[in-house]
Every structure is written in C-alpha cells, then in structure tokens.
Amino acid sequence: MGRKGVSRRLLTRLKRQEGGITRNGETVRSIDTVYNGDVIVLSLEDDSFLEPNSSLNVPIAFENESLVVFDKPGGMPVHPSIKHQGDTLGNYFAHLYPQLTFRPVNRLDRDTSGLCMIAKDALAAKLLQGCCKKVYYAAVHGDIPESGTIDAPIARERESIILRCVREDGQRAVTHYRKLLGSERYSLAEIDLETGRTHQIRVHFAHIGAPLAGDDLYGGLRDDIPRQALHCGRMSFSDPLTGEPVTVSSELPEDIKSLFPTGGIVWKR
Fold first, then answer.
1. Which helix (H) or strand (E) holds 245?
2. Which of 206, 209, 226, 243 has the smallest count of CB within 10 Å of its CB?
3. Catalytic residue positions?
C-alpha cells in the first residue's frame, strides 16, 4: 500500500476502524491475500485526516490561540490533491498541530505566495470567514495606469473546469489597484479585491492586456519567473476572541523583486 501513498500511520488507523479496509465489500486485514480483480476500499470516518509531513518548513507570520497565519511559498498547494498527497500546507499543519482540524480561512492557488490563515477551531473559522481583508501584490506585463478599477463579470470557460474568463453572464467581479513601481517590462500593482472570484486577479489583468508575469494560463510569459507573480502581502482582521484589530504583513518574495532590478523597491507595510 505504501506505493499507493498509504503511510504506516494511516494504515494503522484504517486497521483500528470497523470496515476501514474492505475487499469486495467484506472487511479484510492488511495481511490477507488479495487477487486480481478484487476491489479494495479504504474508508476513514474522519475525512479531514491529513498525513503529517515534518520535512516541510513554512514560516509562521502570526499566531495566537485562535488562528495561525502562514507565509506560504509559491509552488506549495494549500490542500492535498491527486498529484500532491504530502507536500501541502495542510500536511505541514497536521505535523505542527496533530490534534487540530485543518480549517483554512483563505485559500491561495498553488503558485501564489503569501499569507494564508488557518483557524484552530470551528468557532474561530466561523467568526473569521468573510471578515479578513487581504491586499495582494502582482507583477504584470507592460505599463499600467497609476490606479484603476476593473469591473468585469467572471465566468467559467465553458469547456474547462479550471479556466475562467470575462463574460457578460458571469458573476460581478471588481478589482481595485494602484501602481507602485515600473520597470522596462513590468508594473508592480497593489491590489484590493471588492469581490473574491476564482482567479479574479489573474483574469482581470489579462482582460486589460496586462497578464501577470509567469501566468501562462492567462497569457503571461515565463521568461523571467516560473510562476504567476502574485503574492498575498497584507492581511487585516479582528481577533475572534478579543475583537482587537490585527494586521499581518509578508515581504515581497525575491522572485518577484528580481523583476524590478533597478526599481529601488520600498516595501510599504
């Protein structure tokens, strides 16, 4: 089973659970012989189980009794998937907090870096949902105006489960931005989302002819950066226990900074 991604720890849990491992609908032991054509099903009562991974290392930007905010690197998924079973933020969280359920308050695409909040209990997750203001930073192709608002509805591409597009019958989506810096090829934008549609920043800047650097899904080039140049750099919220305002910041990563070699970036927190 190890070759199928079933760890020794997970196997132990399955063996202790009634009906955890079945063959053709009948409970079996892990040492029982199986034959070609047998259907083996593994069932966990707790579908929130995540395999801990102690080899990962993700900086913590803020933590208290109710929540933890990670500074996620680009290239790391938040949730496990078919292609990513043990290298996600969820797996690292399971290593740090084995007694807690993984409850992301905000989600970032795999290649988007920056702040990702995880609630430590169900009440905190409920209180924080929709109450967290985030500021993003993106390096986009070309020279954009000093500030602007993109108000364009977003819908799913009809032939794709991943791609989104601007289309009249889509959901309303509004993106506010201001230009912080420019270089020969790119502009650095600070972005405030009025709505939160899937791929909103990526779709909106592609729509105005300024796709994100590295975002080849929406027309960006990977000449200078191998991922979409998008970073969640600031997060503001009220502490769910005390009500006190909290602001957490994350430094712009080096791969995005490198797109502005002579820009003299002054990071504004």
1. strand 245-249
2. 243
3. 109
